[in-house]
Amino acid sequence: MKFAFSRPTASDKERDELFGHYETIGYDGLQLKHAQYAPFIKDPEKFNALWGEHKGIASGLIFGGKLDNQNQQDLKDLMRFSKAIGTERILYCHGIPRDQVSQDDIKHYAKVLSELGQESKEKYGVVLSLHHHFDQPVMYREDFDIFFDNANDSVKLTIDTAHLYKSGINDIAEVITSFRSKIDNFHMKDFAAGDWKVLGQGEIDFGPIFKAISDIEFSGWMSADEESGGTILGGMKECLTHMKKGVEQFSYK
């Protein structure tokens, strides 16, 4: 199990605080928000010169869009950048409201992302992982079945606990068990009263979630996706403590 951290930053000072402390706190890497890497997409050498000595600094890059022609080209540019800075996976958030798509649309998106995922893996060695969100095409429980029944194995799945919960999917453990062969990444996030919360401070019951993660013998990345608005260092410490406690509870190695 490898632990990562992800959170937005509002300034270069906040970004530098995030980049400068994740290793000493005990994380294996970061999963970067778009604004944290976007200025360097055309200049990966500069990114590497600034932060390349930090292990796991860009273990994952979060990216999104409408999957139109321009967005697909931007995604291909990001694949090249990802290879140059040593990124393992791109987490794709499909930014189209759920009420604007049909089941046939979801099937089509699965095929398009499969082609992109295959190109990303074969040409650049970078995994493409679907990062589902509330009010995006893959939102309801049946959407996951439709999408992955029509996607090839080049598209993986990032499970986001709070977005599942906000979407009305309370049995998160079932989703983990059912899609065990697709899952390559977790975003651990809490939720209560309409807001994101620091892990352990919301209303999601993480016990069954950690048990399911242990049951499927997951050995990839588990990232705290911290968007509660608290302090960077405080959130990093609390989230890592919660994740490690949850993993150790079920004696998962």
Automatic annotation (TrEMBL):
- List the InterPro entries hit by this protein, alphabetically: IolE/XylAMocC-like, Xyl_isomerase-like_sf, Xyl_isomerase-like_TIM-brl
Q: Which Pfam families match?
A: AP_endonuc_2 (PF01261)
Coiled-coil ranges from the UniProt annotation: none
A GO MF term: isomerase activity
Decide whether keyword Isomerase is in the record: yes
Is Cytoplasm there in the keyword field? no
In terms of domain of life, where is this protein from? Bacteria
In this protein, which residues make up the domain named Xylose isomerase-like TIM barrel?
24-228
Keywords, A to Z, come to:
Isomerase
PANTHER family found in the cross-reference section: HYDROXYPYRUVATE ISOMERASE (PTHR12110), INOSOSE DEHYDRATASE (PTHR12110:SF41)
Q: What is this protein called?
A: Sugar phosphate isomerase/epimerase
What organism is this sequence from? Aquibacillus koreensis
